[in-house]
Each structure stands twice: as C-alpha cells, then as structure tokens.
Write a structure and sequence with these properties.
One of its GO terms (molecular function) is 3-hydroxypropionate dehydrogenase (NADP+) activity. Belongs to the short-chain dehydrogenases/reductases (SDR) family. 17-beta-HSD 3 subfamily. This is NADP-dependent 3-hydroxy acid dehydrogenase YdfG. It catalyses: L-allo-threonine + NADP(+) = aminoacetone + CO2 + NADPH; 3-hydroxypropanoate + NADP(+) = 3-oxopropanoate + NADPH + H(+). This protein is α/β, with parallel strands linked by helices. It folds into 2 domains: 65 residues, no CATH class; 239 residues, NAD(P)-binding Rossmann-like Domain (Rossmann fold). 50% of the residues lie in helices and 12% in strands. It is built from 10 helices and 7 strands. It has a 7-stranded parallel β-sheet, sandwiched between helices. Helix 7 links the parallel strand 4 and strand 5. Helix 4 runs parallel beside helix 5 and helix 7 runs parallel beside helix 8. The mean pLDDT is 88. The protein binds NADP nicotinamide-adenine-dinucleotide phosphate.
Length: 315
C-alpha cells in the first residue's frame, strides 16, 4: 500500500514538473489529461508573468513564448497557399497559437521563408511544393504532414487566384485557372484529409472563400462563381458532417492587401471595378485572427461563416 502511494505521488510530481516545463516554453511529452490542465492554467500563469513584469522581476520566459503552447497546442494543421498573403499569415498565426503546420504552395522557396519565420518563434513547420490542382500532390502533402507532424486536425484552404476581367473580353485561360485552383483545388484538398478526419471523428476544414461568395461583383464574374461554389459546397458538406465531429468554416474576406489584387491583366475591368485603393482595406493578420478564432472553439461550437470587410466597404 505504502509503495503504491509513493508511486502515485512520484507520478503526480513528474506530471507537475512536466506542466511547469511546458509553461516555461520547454518542449516535453504530456498526456491528454495534462494538456487539459495546462490549457486551464495558462491564464493564471500568464497573469503571474505579467505581475512579475510589473514588479520589474525577470521571468524564465515571456507571455508570447507561452502562447506558442497556446490554444492549438498539439494540433496539426495543413495550410495551402501558404507561400504568400493570407495563407502565409494564417500559417504563422496557427503556429504562434501552438499548432504544428504543414505548408503547401508551388513556390517552394517562399515556403522555406515562412518555415524560417515559424521556427524563429520556436514553432514547428514543414513545407512541400504542392499544386492544389493535382489530387496526387495534395495527398502527398497530407501524407508528409501526417508522417512528420501527426494526424491532421485542421485544413485551411487558402490557395486561390483572382482576375478582374469582363466576360465579354474572353480571358478564357484566366477563367479556367480560377476554376481549377479555387474550386478543384479546394475539393482536392478536402478529399485528401476527409477520410482521416472521419476515422478520428474530429477535424476542421476552413475555406478562405470571399465576400464574392455572397454576392456577384462586376468584373469578377468567374471569380464570384468560384466562391459561390465554395460556399454551396461547404454548406452541403457541413450538413453531411454535422454528426461526425468534423466542422466546416468559411471565412469571407472583402479586399485584403495581398499580391492577389495586382494579378489582373484585363485593364478595362481593373480600371472599372478594382476599388481596392479607394478605402483602407484589410491586412492579412485580420483574416488570420478569424481563422484562429474559428478553430479554437469547443467541439460543440461551429463557427460556420465569418464575413470580414473593410469598414468602409460593406457588401
Ligand atoms: N486578397 C483579397 O482581397 C482576398 C479577398 C477575399 C478572398 N481572398 C482569398 O484568399 C485566398 C488567398 O489569397 P491571397 O489574397 O492571400 O493571395 P496571394 O497572396 O496571391 O496568395 C495566393 C496563394 O495561393 C497559392 N496558389 C495559387 N495557385 C496555386 C496552385 N495551383 N497550387 C497551390 N497553391 C496555389 C499561391 O502560391 P504559389 O503561387 O506559390 O503556388 C499563394 O500562396 C484566395 O483563395 C483568395 O481568393 C482574397
């Protein structure tokens, strides 16, 4: 009896030590129960650190370091379109909230830059050159994520293209590219993670849609069509998955400051309808915060849609 009690005490002490290690930003193996305790106590630890800072006392780590073992601690995310703009910001924000992140896009050199940023913040990330129009390549990305980081909990579909173009000007190649990346890229990526999520009865699919998925914008007819596709598909999928533990969120940004705004070659359409320089438009971090919010909710909560727009340009 005595030795069993002693064993229990030692196990409790070891568990406590592991929690303290985690709190001070050291990586260590913790079980599920310990993770729960840690999450509950984070706010307390943060306020102790803030209090020490107010008194001018040094602490073994800062609050921002603790945040890295934050609300998404232990989760694995795949982010497509992570080489630029919104995807890059989302990948960094997820990592800063504690998730391990697998990045996909075609420009592998840019992915490496994002990985460096994440690693400099003590986050964990891998990157793989991926064209989302190829189901095989997306599957390879997901397999790489699973073997290096663990089962995928979160997929964020950020890969996308947008061309201002008038339909009468017949920029057919740009229509096709948008349909391939914005529609098929999203279904390919969902197809690559869904089976695993269903088997584990948990997962979160986040689609970066657009306010153009809520109403058609002139000059963006095909683009709007692709985003209506994403919205319709997501609504239906959400209902198919409602009882499975897998959630589907659409984030619907208005204009955001990214290279996407400068892609268009149809100058007529661009001059007529691209008003992104007329008001203060969104920053990529505004969208990244919404993604972190959506994926950080308790499992019974579904953030189905978030419309985020520049204040001066409502739909
Ligand atoms: N910026 C806005 O105003 C705005 C507003 C609403 C919604 N959105 C949506 O937000 C998403 C991200 O756009 P963004 O504004 O961040 O533009 P961005 O900076 O140009 O980023 C687009 C990303 O998509 C990737 N991509 C394009 N084609 C791809 C392909 N075939 N395979 C894999 N990745 C591909 C690009 O990477 P590689 O070129 O390296 O492959 C890049 O990382 C898009 O879905 C867009 O529709 C943007």
């Amino acid at each position: 009896m005595v030795s069993r009690m002693a064993n229990a005490q030692t196990a409790q002490q070891a568990s406590f030590v592991r929690l303290i290690c985690m709190a001070f930003g050291h990586s260590c193996e913790v079980n599920e129960k310990e993770q729960k305790i840690f999450k509950k106590q984070q706010a307390v630890i943060a306020s102790i650190l803030d209090y020490r800072a107010c008194l001018g006392l040094s602490s073994p780590c800062t609050w921002s370091e603790i945040k890295r073992t934050g609300p998404l601690y232990g989760r694995v995310a795949v982010v497509t379109g992570a080489s630029s703009g919104i995807g890059k910001a989302v990948a960094i924000a997820l990592a800063a909230s504690g998730a391990k992140v697998a990045l996909g896009a075609r420009r592998a050199d840019l992915l490496q830059d994002v990985i460096k940023i994440i690693q400099s913040g003590k986050g964990e990330a891998i990157g793989l050159k991926t064209d989302v129009t190829s189901m095989e390549q997306v599957k390879t990305l997901v397999q790489a994520a699973e073997s290096s980081l663990g089962p995928v909990d979160i997929l964020v579909n950020c890969a996308g293209l947008m061309y201002y173009t008038l339909m009468k000007n017949l920029h057919v190649e740009e229509w096709d590219k948008q349909i391939d990346v914005n529609c098929k890229g999203v279904t390919n990526s969902i197809g690559a993670v869904l089976d695993g999520m269903l088997k584990r009865s948990k997962g979160h699919i986040v689609n970066i849609s657009s306010d153009a998925g809520r109403r058609g914008f002139p000059g963006l007819a095909v683009y709007s069509g692709t985003k209506f596709f994403v919205e319709g598909m997501s609504q239906a999928l959400r209902q198919e998955l409602a009882s499975t533990g897998v959630r589907v969120t659409c984030i619907q940004p208005g204009d955001v400051k990214t290279p996407l705004q400068k892609m268009s070659t149809d100058t007529e359409a661009n001059q007529l309808y691209n008003g992104s320089d007329q008001v203060q438009i969104l920053e990529v971090e505004d969208i990244a915060r919404a993604v972190v919010y959506a994926v950080s909710q308790p499992s019974y909560v579904a953030i189905n849609e978030i419309l985020i727009e520049p204040r001066e340009a409502p739909v």
